[in-house]
Amino acid sequence: MHQDEPDPMPESDLDWSTGVADELEWPVVDEEQLENAALNAYLDVEDEYVPLPSEDSFLILSGNNAGSVVTAPPSGAVASATGHAPPRIDRDQALTGSRPIYLVQRGGRYHRFLPRVLVGLHAAYGDNLALGAIANVPSANAQAHRSFFSLSPVSALRIADPQCYLLDTEILRLKKEPITARAYKNAPYLAHADAPDWVQRVLDAQRASGANLLLTPGRALDPDEPQRSLDGIYEQGDDVLSRLDHGERVALNLTLPARWLSSTALRNRLLDQIMDQDQFDTLYVRVQWAQGKAFIPPDDAELLTGIKRLANLCADEERCLLLPQTGLTGWYALAHGAAGFGLGVSGADQAFAEFVFRPGAKGAVERYFEKQLLHTLDRNTHNVLAKAPGYVRCACPYCPALFANEPWSHELSALHYLHSVGELTAKVQRDSQRHGRHAALRRIVTAAHKYSTGLPLSSEQSPKHLDAWGQAL
Amino acid sequence: MNQPAVPRFTPEEVTKELGADATFLGAGAFGDTWKVGDEAVKIICTDDYSMARLEREVEGLRRVSSPHVVAFHGPITVQLGGKARPGLRFEYIAGGDLEGRITNGELLPPRRAEEFLKGLLSGVRALHKATTIHRDIKPANIALRNGRWQDPVILDLGLAKQIDASTITIYPGHIGTFPYMSPEQLIGQRARKAADLWAVGVTARHALSGSHPFYRIDQNYTVDEAYTRLTQGPQPLPGNCPGNVSAILDRLTSMVEHERGSVSSNLIRLSRG
To answer: Do A275 and B256 touch (CB under 8 A)?
Structure first.
């Protein structure tokens, strides 16, 4: 299937380096770097499939066709030892919120690996997860997005984010000239925000990209003119509602600087509006974190309170709250009633952070997400930890090849991360039978906190957020 | 309703115009209400109130359908005092309003509180679904169908409250009755659905205890004093008030709008017991 590859994103677009030791940073990968032993070892395995009995078909877990659904396994493929895959669910089933929604950003170069990550998660945890994929409309053309979505057949939700917040340089801290020439080409509506049919153009761009959950434009909420800003966003949302075709669904897209959640006055205003305006059953809320706080799970009590209150309200009022670009923070929000969250591989996909120019770090840091700690460590610290009592080696599809080969594969480490957070999400659901998701997540955090006690971790490497999370839970 | 002693037109005039015996029920700032047959007819006495505007504004009332909201039968035009005057026809519910009952010492029995509250919330839900915010829910605007506590009926709907606003205006633009105004209404902010929930909470508390949960009837308050009184929280409910009802009434009288919850979520909570 022809796939129109986007041009490589400039390195600066992916480099959110702050120099902070525990920043999560996935480097740009040159084509040459793909020729590495670990990744090749992983990619070279034979095709593995798992039956999908509900549809009389098969999911391909590995090999050339990884990520696809086929009517017959490829010649020479081997059956997975995991039994059969659970039934796929559709968009409306996902939006009921009966399972947590796990959204993976298309991102840049790594997008070709995402279908296998998603199908692997579905095969292993599909009874406890609803999966989705997010592509940013300006990042590639519509055909590329449709192709990406079609390669992710287990994704119940397909979201084409219009990223209209890129127009709000006065409200958000974005890089200088945040909309590139390529972005204007892929998303021409970004150049015509004053056009009378602008909302229609934003919707049509999402439809053309193959989205099955539309978003309102998602301009930023201005904390300096809160009510006017809120009213404007909702008016625009009502305009979108009036343009929906039969069978289409839309989420209210809110982009907010973090102080909308951490300031009691702003938060109350936001929540009052959400409560009052109940015409949207799904909210897609993107929060711009302060740069210094973007790449570590938050331990800011006010911010955690804000996330909790927003999630509580949405759960109480049966609104489906999706938190894209939140990573592990979004996972934490499941405890309080968020229906789903999103993450990705690049820094931008991990967290929507304030832009601060810094020169890129020289050389990529080898990092590894430790499930037991709910935290990312550098490789050297991982090596020490792996020898400590109580350490449980990861059994995801990527770690065997990652640890059996040199040099370190950032790609496999990234895929391990995506798989692991998905696994943690499924675990919350699976364990929620005992007193709900809040209790399940609290047990996981408590276990991580207990495990971290006494570990040989430096101050920079230690998971400081676990204390704050434990108290907030 | 505030009740001036004398209606603006004589019963004979109204009877003649409406073609049936008319009994004066009461009056508000903008018009009088008459019982005519099995209907309550509100006649707008303010001059130059156009039928066209009335038609637009009652459109929402036509969409409301609930046994807990007084049925709206449609607009009319009557000739009184030499002018064509618009009016609104509603079902008439005998037995007077909740305010009269409370004044007579007839309080909401705690064992009926849950049903009463469910009925009120159901009525408000019907109004909100029809995109109508009442903004003036209070004991004087609630009747009991067949005299039953479990069948409360909200009167003086949406616009009707605007044109028959028995209000004490603190600042220009305030709509509502001062003792039942939500905190945000009191300080001049717009009234949203949450304002109706506040009023339901205050009304139910008043009906249970016999006294206003925040204000003393013999005391005057400035807006600032009134707001401060609200921040101090309501008077406790009777000790035999069911726990689930108390919990809901505490939510409904939260100072923060969104903490009151929606009608739907409160009905669900009430049903869980």
So the answer is: no
